[in-house]
Amino acid sequence: MLTLENLAHAYGRKTVLGDISLRLDPGQIGCLLGPSGCGKTTALRLIAGFEQPDKGTICLQDVCVAGPGIALPAEKRRVGLVFQDYALFPHLNVGDNIGFGLGHLTPTERQKRVAEMLGLVGLAGEARAWPHQLSGGQQQRVALARALAPRPRLLLLDEPFSNLDVDLRERLSLEVRDILKHEGITALLVTHDQHEAFAMADAVGVMNEGRIQQWDTPYNLYHRPRNRFVADFIGQGVLLPGTVRGSHKVEIELGLLEGVSPAECDGDSCLVYGEGAAVEVLIRPDDIQHDDDSPLLAEVERRAFRGAEFVYTLKLASGTRLLALVPSHHNHAIGERIGIRLAVDHVVAFRA
Amino acid sequence: MTFKAASWLTALAIALITAIPVAVVLLSLLHPDQAVWDHLWQYVLPELLVNTFWLVLGVGLGVSLLGVSLAWLTAACDYPGRRFFSWALLLPLALPAYVTAFVWLGLFDFTGTFTTFLRNHWGIAQVPQVRSRAGVILVMTLALYPYVYLTARAAFQGQGRRLMEAAQSLGQGRMRAFFSVALPMARPGIMAGLMLALMETLADFGTVAVFNYNTFTTAIYKSWFSLFSLPAAGQLASFLAFFVFVAVLLEQQLRARRSYAASAKSASSSPRIGLRGIPAGLAVFWSSLIFLIAFALPFWQILDWSASVFETDFDARYIEFAWRSLLLAGLGALLVAALALALGYAQRLARTTAMNVTARLATIGYALPGAVLAVGIYIPVAWLDNQLIDTFALDGQVLGGTLLVMLLAYCARFLAVSHGPIESGLGRIGRSIDEAALSLGVTGAKRLWRVHLPMLRVPLLTALALTFVDIMKELPITLMTRPFGWDTLAVRVFEMTSEGEWERAALPAAAIAIVGLLPVVYLIRKTDAHA
Which of A86, A81, A66, A58 is nearest to A152 (CA)? Predict the structure, then answer.
């Protein structure tokens, strides 16, 4: 549906996008996730047609819209956009905003389509309201309806939930996902918020410094990060030094880890680094379990209360620090020593 | 041709309306006519230079003193009537300087109302001569101090009172803290207002003409219309343009440095210095005095005089003057606002240095005295006329002396007035609005019509109103480029004052002043909004 091939772009001498490629299948929701300045917004603007790429091609369905010698103007691409600030036209009411891109329809057809879209986003009866009378979440849905009304081939969403309250953000992202799936829309979302990305997208590309570091499912990004950047950017965790002991075994301070398919150990075996090679192992907070019977003791150095659980920063006798996610009825004071146990399903190790 | 390319070309064409007269005037500085120069050097320039020097110095000191003192009082202190004075002291902006000027002459001339009163009732025969250098300086100061008042007030308000309190806690008295902290911090703002006032001083024609005080603008007028020497007018215009460009460059330097006053801002709602007893009395006296002599007295006087001549002078001819003023101001405002919109829109479509330079050039006319622009427009028009007459064997000028030339001159002079609100209006419309329209398939002229114009309604109305009033008040361009016999209200004021007929000048002046109140009220509301 959407294919990007070796897309690159620079503003002046500053390269913001260096060689990115990706594919979205019809009906798939993709996401570009990364810190600010990673090039994700530029990618979006290139696909929308607001900028022309320096290198590479952009194809929608079987038609290439940008590439060497090709530059279909934005207004002809049939790519819908939901903007970060919604960009609703303040001088038009909700109905006229949604009908803005339907100039090719007759007034009756337009009205019908507008009503249909209002129903789809759950705002039936609000056609006469003015944008400034709506709440942030409602404006967001109007923006979505406006973008979907002309039946775009692809929908782009630029940080669509960043202006909303945290709890509304989560609810609305699931709602929007349902609408897009219901309509079979192919969509690409750009965000710096991993919760948003995970709630919305089927596939996520983690971006840094103008490149896609890993294009994968949310589950794999968390559990099988391909490099240190992804490991660090997605979720919490620490890297502990270890030594390779056989094809699926790594020894660390806390004991011998036996897991499957360590990510950066190309292929299935950590032996690519060689027996006895020095590596660093990713330990997530949920890999550490609190166990009063465990002989392994650690001192509580800091604690952050999260409601259902605590995130404890623990210090081992050797001085090594770990994060542990512990149900919040285990209330331990700072300085207390608690028993912990490793529960690692799969080992992620990077060459030290 | 794409819409974007078309808008680029339009922007260039608009810039030419200003660039051509500026170039014509400046080129005549490079190609002096020896005979003309000799005459000017020997008989004209010495007086003009001396007069201009004293005028600029006197008005500069005067507006600084009035503007800064009143701004400080209303922005940082509290005394009875402060709220009223803080907006009322802007009202003199509604009166063109040439109106204040003739009212003062009418009051204080030997036969004037006030002088006669003193003579008859108290037997005072000797009053200081108003028609003098000091008189011009005083009148211009009273008319132009609001520029400094506005910018200085904004600067003082931005500082809040915390820094003054810091100075006081470090052992400086209130007065010393004002001179050591508040004033230096407000200096960039004060200087910016001062430069505006001085540019207006250099551009002024009506006031100095009423006072028979020879400056460049009156000399340009005289060499053109009394000596019929367009080259001499051109030489003088180039001289004046040179001074103005120096002022513009200074102003831009200062504007670039103005930021440090803003960066040091603290809570603007900080408490004021409450004045009591004698200081409060002095503050009230000073504010009322300036308000009375700069606005209330002249305004009341023109209304009073108007009433006295209303029966005889409010006739078909007066209606004709008014109609011409309205027509010119209306047409001019529409044209100028349309060009300003085209320029602002072209800037939005192409954010390049070249476009910024073009826009800057197009709007520089506001700094140029009307007399200079009139000459700069008339010389090429006269040349074009001669070409047309030679080519087609015509027997009279085609373009010269038509409304078209006047309107072009207004465009060059007032484009900046319209451009300001439109540019900031466009600036408030986010990029994403443009892109939203684009992604929905609406672009080019259609997008301007369906999205931007409706969103620009308020800025456009502002631009129209401001330009309308400015054209209505405008004197030198109207006087020098109008079709033969085409008198407007402003021209009528000028002609009646030249003949010393103060009462009869008051009737058209009243109309101008009342219309002129509109933008001042707008300005007051705008400054009050963020006060």
Answer: A81
